[in-house]
Amino acid sequence: MPIEGFASSAIIDQLTHVLTSLSADDRKKEVNKTKAVYAFQVTNAKGKHFFVVDLKQAGKVTDGASEAEAAKGQPKPDITITIDDGTFVKISEGKTTAAGEFMSGKVKIKGNMMLGMKLEPLLKRFKKLAESLPAAPAAKAPVADEASGAAAQEIAVKGYEGSVVIAQIAQVLGADEAKRQSVLKSTNAIFQIDLNGPQGVKSWVLNLKPGASAADVVVPGTAAQNKKTAGVVLALKDADFVDLASGKITGQSAFMGGKLKAKGNVMLALKLESVLKAAKSAGAKL
To answer: Model confidence at 2, in pLDDT bands (50, 70, 90)?
Structure first.
């Protein structure tokens, strides 16, 4: 049922309609594809409303004026997404991306950040299911590139929150060629980023030289493994990279404090923040 003042409630209604219309076996199949519980805190000028979408066990949707009310009878959420009503609608319509809005600070995520990368493919999948059912609620469909979403998920590594940031850079720069080429022209460098996390050091290459394609702008692995030559290799803890991306620390302070180690052209390290800011700017417009 639509909730007055919350246009995005139509998106949740569509999910509910699909789950309640499917047979028990088909509903179980959809749940097994996701295996996660999403909680949404949606805000508008007048207040907030809460939704919990169980795609892990029973396959049901609940809502309420409080977090406790919405969570009643539901499994513990794996991810909680705080988002304003208008932004949620824009994401569902493909006018922006969850990754871009996270980078710009308009979307806040608590819990498993990797599940946030799956939001648009999830909405797209349920939209297709809704089209095959009668009397589907009139929620507009996301038109985000499912392939780029899948690629971003491959870049993201479980346990490394910094990898989600890197995946978001890939998704944002990969979605807008003009913006990507602008960033590549101003950066003109190849970065290797080494993040030290729970499973040791994981590496990614940011190919930010003019002409790099959407598929080549961010790749997992070292520069040598990808047959590239990095202008600088940046090594830091996973948590410190997240702080750098969020603006809690600066590249200069991280370098001076020993949190960021650079091998190669040290001056290129100072360009990393510009890349992160450009990705945020691009995400706000997508």
So the answer is: low
